[in-house]
């Protein structure tokens, strides 16, 4: 059983009034038939044997102590205690006991104790109300040490000892003995004093801490803790605290109480973190009061500083004053960093007030100035403060930068300052840049943006970011992949790199960070990033990095493309096929050769995704343009699978072409045989979703087929216009008196990049049509592709194919085509 909440130690009180440890196990409360009631059972964790079986008696007085102890008397002289590893487990069992006895779990004792019983429980540890402490003398130190260490296992005796130490002013007497021992170099006495003082700390009593950590006592307490018997030489903690550790006042603190609190907190934190050994699982609760002592001191310090607005205003004034020298500014920034770190101890509502106070005093404009400074230490501390602010409220930071954008140039905007710090990080490992990238990602994450009734932060901020900041973020990427470095007409399968990529490891790391952020944008920003990628032809520039000698950078570029393809957005797919953007990826795969590495696996996964998701336009493009280069790769079935999908789709389209729709079966409509021959080898690779979309009217045929809209808005307008045009899938009379047909598939849209394989045919009916049609001058404009002797249906219903095949067998319904 691994549930630590229910893990307990079982104690029984022996005849000498000492608590004996009966073992460690897991407690449960269940109904025991033999005892006829709800009982507490403890099974040993070693072998599962029963350590305790005790019926919860409705009249027994149970006591809860120190959040992790439950104590009760089973019989006249048989007292039991359960010591829990975790408070949650103690609370759970306490609730069960209270439930049986019909009590509120908030009580500390379940029954009003009758006098004799109260006396009995109170006097459990000893027959006398207090522990008798030996006189405080050198020759009694061993006896005192034994006493202190012996009570630690008994919660009640710990309470008694703490009370005795407090009442007799014993700690100050012990510390006087410490000075005597140190002067006499009495090592044995000093070792005993270490045990005594450490034991007193483990009593976990705030009243004793107040005495021990007072100005007059704390250094002697630290002194006692230097003499650990397990060390050959004593440590020099006092020397560190008095000589090495320097208290810096960036602006003089006039409040003596505040100053004393700061000193005390630092020293107590030092005792907890440095001097005392890391507590074991069962000792964790021993120092809970010490942790609380430090915690409440920090809260008090933050509150006192926060209330002193004069002090904070002065700090801000000096921080932003150009006359302040660098050392002073560094100290001011470090003070703020520590101040913000202390604020993490505050309750949420107090922390809220704290950051609002800082915002009101102008922390963000101050940070903007400080982050742009040359001093690395100052910039690093300013980044830490900025991270506290972003973590606390990304919206507050966003609101500030959007207001600032109305008054300032792009160069000095806070977010651009942050981006520039990221780009200019001098650390070879880019530690600072990684931290700043994380903060930027938080700021541009739509998940934490608010949408209120009157404004949407998401659209406002993203418009701002793409207009004012995106060009700064992508500048290093565009600079390192500029056109003059890139040969556009590289041969597929070339063994040499076509591009000059950044060899510098630091630049490569920076580009990888920028790409990580852009990949995040592709996933979360939809049309903003889509616009940006199209307008800047960003994917082409990113794929230049596939030739980098740094594999991690090539993988980042590939991951960027994989995210784009993962969206399965046909607009992106057309952009990729039109720009022939698979070429650098396939070159990288072929240049990688037979090496079985991460790059190889990532490229294959990209193509496998396209195959599994059956992205028709990309499958057609890959097979038609690159299959010859890829067919030799047989250690995976991906490329053969792509070819199979391609051929299946081709066959499916051919079958559709063979099923002739009824509206065209009248011999009134004829096709020119030449048009059929030209179209013989054609097929469609469009998605089902695009049916009825891509019509090219005759006036548009003069435009080059790869003239795609260069922005998302234009694309949407074109799409809407086409969709409205296609709503009626019936012949429309044109101004010339002919009929215009809108077909459900069009090769021209699907294969714009490959115009030799796809044509829109303007087929004209012969003036002398065989049925003597009256519309001699009518022009039938169709965007149609067909195999010889067949036409495309106006509307294809998936389950109509069988019907069509049946109809085809009837000679009466066969269409008559013009010869």
Automatic annotation (TrEMBL):
InterPro entries documented for this protein: ARM-type_fold, EVH1_PP4R3, P4R3-like_central_dom, PH-like_dom_sf, PP4R3-like
Gene: PPP4R3B
Organism the protein comes from: Apteryx mantelli (North Island brown kiwi)
PP4R3 EVH1-like domain location: 5-101
Ranges of Basic and acidic residues composition bias in the record: 700-731
Domain Serine/threonine-protein phosphatase 4 regulatory subunit 3-like central: 143-648
Residue spans of biased composition, Polar residues class: 776-788
Annotated Low complexity bias: 744-775
Family: Belongs to the SMEK family.
Sequence ranges of Acidic residues compositional bias: 681-693, 797-808
Protein name stated in the entry: Serine/threonine-protein phosphatase 4 regulatory subunit 3B isoform X1
Gene3D superfamilies associated with the record: Pleckstrin-homology domain (PH domain)/Phosphotyrosine-binding domain (PTB) (2.30.29.30)
Stretches for region Disordered: 681-819
Pfam family, one: EVH1_PP4R3
């Amino acid at each position: 059983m691994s549930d630590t909440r229910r893990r307990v130690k079982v104690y029984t009180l022996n005849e000498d009034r000492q608590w004996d440890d009966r073992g460690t196990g897991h407690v449960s409360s269940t109904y025991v038939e033999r005892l006829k009631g709800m009982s507490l059972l403890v099974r040993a964790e070693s072998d599962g044997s029963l350590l305790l079986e005790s019926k919860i008696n409705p009249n027994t007085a149970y006591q809860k102590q120190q959040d992790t102890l439950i104590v009760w008397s089973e019989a006249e002289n048989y007292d039991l205690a359960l010591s829990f590893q975790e408070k949650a487990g103690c609370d759970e069992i306490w609730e069960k006991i209270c439930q049986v006895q019909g009590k509120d779990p908030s009580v500390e004792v379940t029954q009003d104790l009758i006098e004799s019983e109260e006396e009995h429980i109170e006097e459990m540890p000893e027959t006398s109300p207090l522990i008798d402490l030996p006189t405080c003398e050198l020759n009694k130190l061993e006896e005192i040490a034994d006493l202190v260490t012996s009570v630690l296992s008994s919660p009640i005796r710990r309470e008694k000892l703490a009370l005795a130490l407090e009442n007799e002013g014993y700690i100050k007497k012990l510390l006087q003995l410490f000075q005597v021992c140190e002067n006499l170099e009495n090592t044995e006495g000093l070792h005993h004093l270490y045990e005594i003082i450490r034991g007193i700390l483990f009593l976990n009593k705030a009243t004793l801490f107040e005495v021990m950590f007072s100005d007059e006592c704390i250094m002697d307490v630290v002194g006692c803790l230097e003499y650990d018997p397990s060390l050959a030489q004593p440590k020099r903690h006092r020397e560190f605290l008095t000589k090495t550790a320097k208290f810096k006042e960036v602006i003089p603190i006039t409040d003596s109480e505040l100053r004393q609190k700061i000193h005390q907190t630092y020293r107590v934190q030092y005792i907890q973190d440095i001097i005392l050994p890391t507590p074991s699982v069962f000792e964790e609760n021993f120092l809970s009061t010490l942790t609380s002592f430090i915690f409440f001191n920090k809260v008090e310090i933050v509150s006192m500083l926060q209330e002193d607005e004069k002090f904070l205003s002065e700090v801000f004034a000096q921080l932003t004053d150009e006359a302040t020298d660098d050392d002073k500014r560094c100290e001011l920034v470090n003070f703020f960093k520590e101040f913000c770190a202390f604020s993490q101890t505050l309750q949420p509502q107090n922390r809220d007030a704290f950051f609002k106070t800082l915002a009101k005093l102008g922390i963000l404009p101050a940070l903007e100035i400080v982050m742009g400074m040359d001093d690395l230490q100052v910039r690093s501390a300013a980044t830490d403060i900025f991270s506290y602010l972003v973590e606390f409220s990304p919206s507050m930071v966003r609101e500030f930068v959007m207001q600032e954008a109305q008054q300032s140039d792009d160069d000095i905007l806070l977010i651009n300052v942050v981006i520039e710090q990221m780009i200019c990080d001098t650390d070879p490992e880019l530690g600072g840049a990684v931290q700043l990238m994380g903060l930027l990602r938080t700021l541009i994450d739509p998940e934490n943006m608010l949408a209120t009734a009157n404004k949407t932060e998401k659209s406002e901020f993203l418009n701002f970011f793409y207009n004012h900041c995106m060009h700064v973020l992508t500048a290093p990427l565009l600079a390192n992949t500029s056109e003059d470095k890139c040969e556009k007409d590289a041969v597929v399968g070339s063994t040499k790199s076509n591009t000059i990529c950044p060899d510098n490891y630091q630049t490569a790391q920076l580009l990888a960070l920028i790409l990580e952020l852009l990949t995040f944008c592709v996933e979360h920003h939809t049309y903003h990033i889509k616009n940006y990628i199209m307008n800047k032809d960003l994917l082409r520039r990113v794929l230049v990095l596939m030739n980098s000698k740094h594999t991690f950078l090539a993988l980042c570029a590939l991951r960027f493309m994989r995210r784009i393809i993962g969206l399965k957005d046909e607009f992106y797919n057309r952009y990729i096929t039109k720009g022939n953007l698979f070429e650098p990826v396939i070159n990288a795969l072929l240049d990688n050769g037979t090496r079985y590495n991460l790059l190889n696996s990532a490229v294959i996964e990209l193509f496998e995704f396209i195959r599994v998701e059956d992205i028709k336009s990309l499958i057609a493009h890959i097979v038609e343009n690159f299959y010859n280069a890829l067919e030799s790769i047989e250690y995976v079935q991906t490329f053969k699978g792509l070819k199979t999908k391609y051929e299946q789709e081709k066959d499916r389209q051919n079958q559709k072409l063979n099923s002739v729709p009824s509206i065209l079966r009248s011999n009134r409509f004829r096709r020119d045989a030449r048009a059929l021959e030209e179209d013989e080898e054609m097929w469609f690779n469009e998605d089902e979703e695009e049916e009825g979309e891509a019509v090219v009217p005759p006036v548009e045929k003069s435009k080059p087929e790869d003239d795609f809209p260069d922005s998302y808005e234009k694309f949407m307008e074109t799409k809407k216009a086409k969709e409205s045009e296609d709503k009626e899938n019936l012949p429309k009379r044109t101004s010339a008196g002919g009929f215009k047909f809108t077909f459900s598939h069009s090769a021209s849209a699907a294969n714009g990049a490959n115009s030799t394989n796809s044509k829109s045919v303007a087929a004209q009916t012969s003036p002398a049509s065989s049925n003597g049609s009256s519309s001699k001058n009518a022009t039938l404009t169709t965007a149609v592709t067909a195999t010889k002797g067949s036409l495309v249906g106006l509307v294809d219903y998936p389950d109509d194919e069988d019907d069509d095949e049946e109809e085809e067998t009837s000679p009466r319904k066969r269409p008559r085509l013009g010869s």
